[in-house]
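We modelled the chain as a single entity of 350 amino acids. Its sequence is:
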Amino acid sequence: STLSSRRESQHSGWVSISVGCNNTCTFCIVPSLRGKEKDRRPGDILAEVEALVADGVVEVTLLGQNVNSYGAEFRDKGAFAKLLRAVGNVDGIERVRFTSPHPAAFSDDVIDAMAETPTVMPQLHMPLQSGSDTILKSMRRSYRTKRFMNILDTVRERIPHAAITTDIIVGFPGETEEDFQGTMDIVRRARFSQAFTFQYSIRPGTPAATMDNQVPKDVVQERFERLTALQDEIAWDENKTQIGREVEVLVTKLPHGDSPRLSGRAEDNRLVHVGIPEGAQMPRPGDFVTATVTEAKPYFLLADSGFSVRPSRAGDAYDRAQADSCGAPSPGQGAAGATNLGMPTIRPRG
């Protein structure tokens, strides 16, 4: 087991559970570059999580190209659900997330593990890629839109407050206006809290790169703009439903410069900016604050009616790191670290 965890802060870590991929999506170069999926042993993963906890981490994200196929290498179809429960039960872990699953292999035992393990957060990133069954077939995505929507319905039945995000590709070769309207229809029905939308571009070495009927750039751009406008409207509407709700926020960034609020992530991974009343106790990155949402924007929430602080071991770790560095920020970071979009940062190898 040679895969190491990625640390973005004192409070959170990314833990790889596998590398490579057994799927053959026609737009993706990963199988060619990384080969077939190789799974880490559960004991190695748990040992790494325990080591992170000992270092102050309170949140871990399990990372793989297709996390819910974890265990195929050692022939245990229920391995990922078992791993999710086991990581969630590690003493000291407060939040567990994972990315990314694949709709074809996403099973009810994983949904059960999410619903029944309090530390597994009510958040699911489920890549759609296209709302057209014709395009999904051309992509070699081994599911169809009915299967995708059934997953979302089951998750929302078991975890009513879950926030669901997705990936969508616009302008895949051969995509017609009818195919695109299928994507728009699924977006309207699915009510994603956020969608990572991409304009298709040719990747040399992939089967899609040489397909006929490449969609003209101006058509792709126009469809992309329609899709993002729709999704922004839906995300804003969904965020408005959070107004008046009490949320617990893991603090990731303190006020600085022209940003008077502290920032962090709610349990469902929504970005929350929290106002600081005069004289209020200032939390540390890694501490938790509980606040009531007062306003919603398309990409974040505001909570400006005060908050309570719950100190954490991650906050203590932040203090130790500051003391060790005499208060100087790490290279490339502000003193409080950076607020990211919930995705791992990929850095070039030196």
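As a brief sanity check on the tokenised model: The mean pLDDT is 91. The first helix runs from residue 30 to 34.
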